[in-house]
Write a structure and sequence with these properties.
The chain is mainly β. It has a 7-stranded mixed β-sheet. Strands 43-42-41-46-47-44-45 form a 7-stranded mixed β-sheet, with no helix packed on it. Strand 17 and strand 18 form a beta hairpin. The protein is globular. The protein starts with a helix and ends with a strand.
């Protein structure tokens, strides 16, 4: 009798079910503060669903089936319909205590129980009274799902697999209900992968289940209200409820919780303008819970037109309309740094964000935040990043060392060495030292004072015989055209699309060039933009006319083509240059060539000694390999036996290590009729550790920590978009893919790395806000992998959750790789501003407990930035690290 009186409030002496008053405290002597179910026990006690006995709740005791029914009737608000005076007769096998019989009858009538099913269960267990039988987890799950009216949904899930390791032990008539309850997060497993369907349910557990179910089946209880929190302090909450603003007092005995935590919260941790559930006694709050994260506000962005202090009103241009924004003494008005300012300090043309509520019939302005006020200034600094559309530049200020982002006028002059550069902002490079002018918050003029590279466009005119200077026509074809001359840097690079190993000697009059100038105003690189060299790989010589210098060829596809050789034609034999007189005797019938030509002029004639492309088949029986080249032509080549195989990372590779789908280079013998070796192409992701521009070398670190010293002169250096860059563009700490042909490094391509917070996950796309505030979308339509909690694979994508901190980049195979950065739980102790050192409380005496906080470290709570001064001794925090640096501190 004591067992169910504790839970239901049944009085053995009086034989009645006593109502619990919401004003009565719910602090039970055997439910200590911080108990895992304290939140739910307290709420249900105040709602009158459960009641203790002599101040105790006995949370670990099991619940009988008849007690569970009484709770369910109370939960759905039907207790007043229980008819205690009815004469009730059940079959002899269906034993129920007399007090509970009216509840069971009402449960049958309300569809909480299936009479036929329960009678059969009782008859099948004659040794146990149905009513006093301990309720199993699967039985209670079915009861609660029926109580909240989700029977139809549960039956639709009846044939689905129960997602626990012991799911096969769930009874057939309960499976759908377990699936539905788990999907609604009403019940969890006893462990991460075990449900224990036949196990008994405790009073603490059943209180938790009924409490969670209120989100699916809200019922009114005495003293209970819902409203919207407008503000709070340690002694009270101010909220909007029943169409008016009111205040409730908070005491040390008040239970305060958030929807997303089972642990007690401070009032200051509740999010303003969200929905609250409150159980109160008069104006005293007994239980307060934030029900969700949705702020009932709207945020408007606009530009201040004028401030009317007498009317407490600000006129703001929002879109194309002027809108009056009233404010009051409760409106928080802050400047761009977050400091409070008076309304009179607001200035015309300031960009502001206005937050106002959406739950009052007459909206109130909650806050006015200045995002940017008009700025008029001059300054100096170094370009740290830039964006062309829309135009903006971020400058690391020389005076303060801080970074500032400015919008740039489309008409802004970009000046270098006294000349206005064509292309404006596109002529800037990260690392350029600049001075600038700002008018009304817009940069109108940028003067480059020092640069590593600058781009100009011109038409090639001539080069000196020693190729130390070139002449080009700037603004060719216009009335402002002029002939300019520049010195050429010793390591200048020339790029012509389709050609490799090009030099200044390959330029011809009429070539339109993008010319990169270094900080000494020397030509550092030239890219020809109006001429493309068409390449014929594996062409066969039909004949050569030495008088006409005409070469007749058959393409690999069978088409015929003729080209003329000129004094500009380059001849390559196994990597060595030869002259026409030496090449002519070799242009015999059936000779295999690679020919590059523009129009009908041969630019390059290369005696074929290799083929590169994707391996599409390997036939060990016939000793042949088939390669599909980048131009889609297919060649099948016989191989020497045994063929030499070169593969990075494998010292004794054999033909069995080469797989269909690999990219490889097949090297031919002198007769061009057999493959002597196969060089497999591969890539390895590395980190740049140092750059030596003087000696043209750079070092990278492998994943195993080993260091490689590389020659920047012999490698193709590319940015993230695959565009050629100079060694000076590489920076320590950058990530890139080191590309190999066989065991020889041939190129290095930078990889863009995004680190930040995952804000949205769909089957097709993930969205990340990086630590600079940029929103980046990553499509999942191609190959990708996810690493989380030590597991890697596409299946791990299902474990991604909004709020995860992630690193996103392309891997060595150019596929998207998402790695979840786990936070480290700590307790805040103190922060020393002078040294920038964060100290946390030690879990062990030997544990390191200090971390460097930099200007780049973010401090947040929820989705909002907070000052580090808001952290208090003992606060639970999460620390996120990236590349050994503390990037974020999250207050729990």
């Amino acid at each position: 009798m004591l067992v169910f009186s504790v839970l239901t409030g049944y009085s053995a002496a009086g034989g009645s079910l006593a109502h619990a008053d919401a004003a009565v405290t719910a602090r039970f002597s055997d439910v200590p503060a911080g108990h895992w179910a304290e939140k739910h026990i307290a709420k249900l006690a105040m709602q009158g669903i459960i009641k203790g006995n002599n101040g105790a709740f006995k949370p670990a005791d099991n619940v009988s089936q008849q007690e569970a029914i009484a709770l369910a009737i109370r939960f759905i608000g039907k207790e007043q319909e229980v008819r205690v005076d009815d004469a009730i007769v059940f079959p002899p096998s269906f034993e129920v205590s007399n007090y509970f019989k009216p509840y069971i009858i009402l449960a049958f009538q309300e569809g909480l129980l299936d009479q036929k099913e329960e009678f059969e269960l009782a008859e099948a267990n004659p040794g146990s009274a149905w009513g006093t039988k301990k309720a199993s987890r699967e039985w209670v799950t079915k009861l609660i799902v029926r109580a909240i009216g989700k029977q139809q949904e549960a039956e639709a899930l009846a044939k689905d697999k129960v997602s626990f390791s012991d799911g096969s032990k769930v009874g057939a008539s309960y499976a759908g209900y377990v699936n539905e309850a788990v999907s609604l997060q009403l019940i969890k497993g006893v462990t991460a992968d075990r449900f224990d369907p036949k196990g008994f349910i405790t009073r603490a557990s059943i209180a938790t289940i009924f409490s969670r179910a209120e989100s699916q089946f809200p019922v009114s209880y005495t003293g209970q209200m819902t409203g919207v929190l407008s503000s709070a302090d340690d002694a009270s909450i101010h909220w909007y409820q029943a169409g008016k603003d009111s205040t409730l007092t908070i005491s040390p005995d008040t239970y305060v919780y958030r929807f997303d935590s089972e642990k007690p919260s401070r009032v200051s941790e509740l999010t303003p303008n969200t929905e609250l559930l409150v159980i109160a006694n008069g104006t005293k709050a007994l239980y307060v819970e934030q029900l969700d994260s949705e702020e009932m506000v709207e945020r408007l962005n606009g530009t201040i037109e004028r401030v009317v202090a007498n009317d407490s009103k600000v006129w703001v241009w929002i879109g194309d309309e002027p809108v009056a924004i009233p404010y009051s003494s409760t409106t928080a008005i802050t400047n761009g740094s977050g400091a409070a300012i008076a309304a009179s300090a607001l200035t015309v043309d300031s960009e502001v964000e206005i937050t106002r509520d959406t739950y009052r019939s007459k909206q109130q302005t909650i806050s006015i935040k200045v995002k940017s006020a008009p700025v008029n200034k001059t300054g100096q600094g170094t370009v740290s990043s830039l964006q062309l559309n829309p135009s903006s530049v971020t400058v690391k200020e020389t005076a303060s060392g801080s970074e500032t982002k400015y919008d740039v006028s489309p008409q802004a002059d970009v000046i270098w060495q006294g000349q206005i550069l064509d292309g404006g902002l596109s002529q800037l490079r990260v690392g350029d030292a600049v001075s600038y002018e700002v008018k009304n918050s817009i940069v109108t003029k940028i003067t480059i004072t020092q640069t590593s590279a600058k781009l100009v466009r011109g038409e090639f005119y001539s080069a000196s015989s020693d190729f130390k200077t070139i002449q080009y026509v700037k603004n060719a074809g216009s009335t402002t055209s002029s002939l300019e001359a520049k010195f050429v840097a010793s390591n200048a690079e020339v790029t012509i699309d389709g050609l490799t190993g090009t030099t200044l000697a390959d330029l011809v009059k009429g070539d339109i060039m993008d010319i990169t100038l270094n900080d000494k105003d020397q030509v550092a690189a030239i890219k020809v933009v109006n001429r493309k060299v068409e390449m014929l790989a594996g062409a066969t010589v039909l004949s050569y006319d030495s008088d006409l210098k005409a070469l007749f060829l058959k393409k690999a596809s069978g088409e015929l083509v003729s080209v003329f050789l000129t004094d500009k034609t380059k001849f390559d034999m196994n990597g060595s240059s030869i002259v026409l007189s030496a090449a002519a005797p070799l242009l015999t019938k059936n000779r295999k060539l690679t020919v590059g030509y523009t129009d009908d002029k041969a630019i390059l004639v290369q005696f074929v000694y290799k083929y590169s492309g994707m391996v599409t088949s390997i036939n060990a029986n016939t000793n042949q390999v088939t390669i599909t080249q980048s131009n889609s032509s297919v060649v099948t080549l016989p191989m020497d036996y045994p063929v030499i195989v070169e593969m990075n990372g494998k010292t004794s590779a054999t033909l069995t290590d080469v797989k269909v789908g690999d990219t490889a280079t097949a090297l031919l013998n002198a007769n061009q009729d057999k493959v002597t070796s196969l060089q497999v192409h591969s890539a390895k992701q590395v980190e740049v550790t140092s750059v030596d521009t003087i000696n043209k070398r750079f070092k990278v670190k492998n994943s195993d920590g080993s260091i490689l010293d590389l020659n920047g002169n012999v490698l193709d250096l590319l940015n993230e978009q695959g565009e050629k860059i100079m060694l000076s563009n590489l920076k320590t700490g950058q990530t890139g893919n080191l590309q190999y042909v066989g065991t020889t490094p041939v190129g290095f391509k930078l990889v863009k790395v995004t680190v930040g917070k995952l804000t949205a996950v769909t089957p097709d796309i993930v969205t990340v806000v990086d630590y600079s505030g940029n929103v980046v979308n990553f499509p999942l339509d191609k190959g990708y992998s996810v690493t989380k909690n030590g597991l890697t694979g596409t299946a791990a994508a299902a474990a991604l959750q909004p709020g995860d901190r992630v690193e996103v980049k392309k891997d060595a195979k150019d596929q998207l790789a998402i790695a979840v950065i786990s936070g480290v739980s700590k307790k805040f102790w103190k922060y020393e501003a002078a040294s920038g050192v964060l100290s946390v409380k030690r879990a062990t005496l030997t544990e390191a407990n200090t971390y460097a906080v930099t200007s780049a470290t973010k401090i947040t709570q929820g989705d909002q930035p907070i000052a580090i001064s808001q952290l208090k001794d003992g606060d639970a925090i999460l620390l996120y690290f990236y590349q050994n640096a503390l990037v974020e501190i999250v207050k729990s």
